[in-house]
Batch of 3 targets.
Target 1
Amino acid sequence: MRVLHVDAGREWRGGQNQVRLLLREFAHQGDPHVLLVTHRAGELARRVVASATPVDGISWSLGLDPRAWWGLGRAIRDFRPDLIHVHDSHALALARWTRPSVPLIAHRRVDFHVRSGSAWFKARHVVAVSNAIKRILIQDGVRPDAVTVIHDGIDPAEIRTNASRPLDIRARLSLSPDAPLAVNVAALVGHKDQLTLIRAAAAARSLAPELHWAIAGEGERRHTLETEIARLGLGDRVHLLGYITEADSLIREADVFVMSSKEEGMGSVILHALALGRPVVSTAAGGIPEVVPADALVPVADPRALAHRVVTMLAQPTATSLPDRFTAKSMAEATLALYRSLV
């Protein structure tokens, strides 16, 4: 079986890492035969090439770049796939424009609603990374039999190896070695809602005066978050770290991992925290309740509840192990079974 994978690849986030892991698992088992079409200068292309998976790097500067459409069309003609598997909305739109004669599978990783007439209705099948996303797709009009839930997965051994390199984040922030630390790793975008996290830090100050909060990520909301930190006088307690490559080491050094999202397909970074044995506190957004136990969840956009839950977790830490269904191996096996059902 020949499967062409398409991802815009113009940034490196959780979705791109999932593509890397999926293709790496396919390479390990030798089935299916795959080719990735993506932005030639992107981090995804670099990492997938390093794992010995074939990559067709194309020019892809804009979401709907005409050069990318031409490059994708050429790849389809040359590779002659049995299936095309796209991993983001721009890839889906471009693939539709090529009018492929083979089944088109679209991966949906966000719990946003889809517009009527969207290309998501044109795919032969949609892979949803959580039941929450499947419910939204069906609510918006996608046929139930056209959606399959395949959870994101990670390689726990890889995560633990990555985390074995010390980051010494407390020393970098000039904190005492035993300072309690809550960590968030997410892009600084609206739906990740770090404003609620910052307000939770303000609410927690009287409950746990020594608690520090570190936010690793970069994005369009950085100035807004900096303004809120200053307004609440939290410059000595909330630390914006920017994008860091040692995210797993940061998570390992945390006392508790925190997610504050108001919308979230599943939150694959939570799987990293579970693999590292870190206690997790999160909002009950999107597909997160499918991963995190109910007693570690709080309502969306409720900073006081988030603060209390984090402080409680610090006093009585409880870690949840990573279930087998959230491994890259399980993800690849389920995806291959779907391919076989469609060809």
Note: The first strand starts at residue 2 and ends at 7.
Target 2
Amino acid sequence: MQENADVTPAERKPAAVVTNADVASAPEGVRRTAAGEGARPIVVMRPPAFSFDALWHSARRLTHYGDLLYTLSLHRLRVRYKQSVLGALWAVLQPLALMLIYTVIFSEVARVDTGGMPYPLFAYTALLPWATFSTAVSTATSSLVSHANLVTKVYFPREILPLTYVIAALFDLVASSLVLGVLMLYYDIALTWQVVFLIPIVAVLAVFALAVSIILCAVQVRYRDIGIAMPLVLQLWMFATPIVYPLSAVPAQWRSLYMLNPMVAVVDGFRGVLIDGTAPAFTPLAVSAIVAVGLLLAGFLYFKHVEATVADVL
């Protein structure tokens, strides 16, 4: 880059070296004043200490990147179905197709007992939260690797990338719910006030999906086997979740261990609130929330610890 000939070496001011904590805590006006005086703020990325204080500073810094999060999330939705004939209808067709297949296999062939519940509705209400989780994790896992050009050239909190994929998956959940409304009308299932419990259920789903996503995308930067193994892992995980069969089919002696899977309470609660009109069991949902939040905190700390070397490895 050619330097300005009007500025002598003596007049040229050195760049200001600013750490992550300084950038996060310094007021916006201070940064503008420094820029006006000729100082150029530089972010020096270092692995933060494993502490809640570092976690708080990193989370607070995200508030300064709200516009970037919105822009990338909107871009994610536009690009996902770009140049496809059906467009956003793919978000509906995928769980719908699985519902039809499972209805034939587990209703006509295997004859799974659903307690008198129509199997298409039984399967579809469980497939909605599962498809959201599966889509978020499978796409967010490769978010850092697929955006290597962006990550290696521009600084921004890297966790924004997997977060945008989770937001896009939640949008698919809303779109797929339109078909669920049609099925409920067809089978004459009315909504009750218990539907308000969908808010904590979806919140646990989103937190758990984000927790798994940020851990896996950070690991995949160094071990690309993660992306290759994801389809198999998610397939096995699905059959370890009460989607094609009811929770009551799980043997009682295995149920406590089985409930440690946060998706069990999410899927079973989602189905019960909409079809049975009952509130979700508090204890399983609380355990799922604790596991999801704990995993998110641990995953976020790990993600920020390895963030400083992501660009080098990519």
Note: The two ends are 26 Å apart (CA to CA).
Target 3
Amino acid sequence: MNETYEEKVAVYIDSVLPKQFSYERKKVSEDWLKKSRMAEGIVSDFVRRVEAVEGKRILDIGFGNGLTLKAFADQGGVMSGLEVSKSLFSIATDVLSNYGVSADLKTYDGFTFPFANESFDFIYSVSVLEHVDDPVAVLKEASRVLRYGGSFYLAFPNRFNPKETHTGIWFASYLPRKVADLYLKMCGRSGVDMYWNVHFLSFFKLKRFLKEGAIPMTIRFETESLHPIKRFIKKTLALLGLHHSIFLPHIMVILDKKK
């Protein structure tokens, strides 16, 4: 990337993370360096689990620096994106311009999507839902703008993963949020609000969000595997209404909007 991009990234990190929080600054910087490779992995997983994206209208909820959106566009997706941060909007605009990628990027209030009903064939959101204040509202809006028969690829850190993703502190996400805030500070980390207002989510909370909001999307239980033991485990979990990603560091589900 050019110097302007790097300068904007540095300004963004300075704006969201005070300089005394060395762990957080280092982690954010390292994560951004991995974004391109991670983006390619997300697209590959999407195509494998959903379908090819060429010619499909796709919405990225929380596009960040724009690299995941670019990876989808490289595969032929017709891209739109939402972001609450004007700084990230500026960074992503530069990234996409540098790569010659066209996309409809918008900033929004974190609640209401500025798109008409059934605007998109697919939606994806990776490591965003845990940072929003009203996940039910976001899921409702995602369902509204998704066409019937469309799919929503949703991923967020699993609170039951022993090592909390954002802070690197063991078992922090097992605790109530206020207790976790105190625990993090005792461990020399900043409080939970410093991590972009992070909330600890689980598969069970996702199910509750969908039910509470009467959201017309259903969780797809993926039971296929080349390995017979894994296939048996997936099918057994599905019978219990559980997705296999409950055992993974991240919950990664496909939500289908049935016709």
Note: The chain is about 40% helix and 15% strand.
